[in-house]
Amino acid sequence: MDQIIDLVQMIVAQLNTWYNNFTRNAIHMWDDMTLLKYIRLVAIVGAYALLRPYLMKWGEKLQAKEYEKELDPYEMATTDGKNGKGKISPNQLRGAGGKVVELEASDSEEEGEGMATDVKWGKKARKRQRAVVKKILADGEEVRRQLQEDDEDKDIQEYLVDYTPGEDGW
Questions:
Q1: Rounded-to-10 torsion of CA 103, 104, 107, 111
Q2: To bridge 103 with a disulfide, which of 28, 50, 73, 170 should be the other Cys (CB 3.0-4.6 Å)?
Q3: pLDDT in tens, 119-142
């Protein structure tokens, strides 16, 4: 029981010390401030306020670059990995010398693009190609949607009756 009382007293003493330090520092920190220190403080805070947006954008770009960086299977094959594989020569990648090296396709590419004899596109070219494919798929989906709407309109049209005043069409 004495240990619990000592522990509580120690916690209360620590909190009291923190409170006293905070109030003393908050009140008396302005006592020794000179004009030079005020100018220095304003300059530092102002520089931070002006540079912060640029630093945030720069960090955002670096983070996006790291996120977008795809590990190329050809790059993986030529680096010394932990899996015990050594470097693969370019001739082996091309299939020369009787050995054909098969590299797995990445998740972001279609199945047929991971072969060793395929054209090796750059990163920007792959992105452009993906954008074109997405646009073509979206256009095709739009055409299918329009055709489906037209078919629905034709189905409804057969049940509609033209109404002309003076005639009993009902």
A1: 100
A2: 73
A3: 567 888 888 888 999 999 999 999
Residue reference for tokens 């709407």? 149
Cα–Cα distance, 51 to 35 (Å, whole number):
24
CA distance 145 to 140: 9
> CB under 8 Å to 22, separation ≥6 — which residues?
none
The average confidence (pLDDT) of the chain is 78
Instruction: For 103-122, write each residue's pLDDT tens digit.
Output: 555 555 554 444 444 556 78
Is residue 70 within 8 A of residue 123, CB to CB? The reply is yes
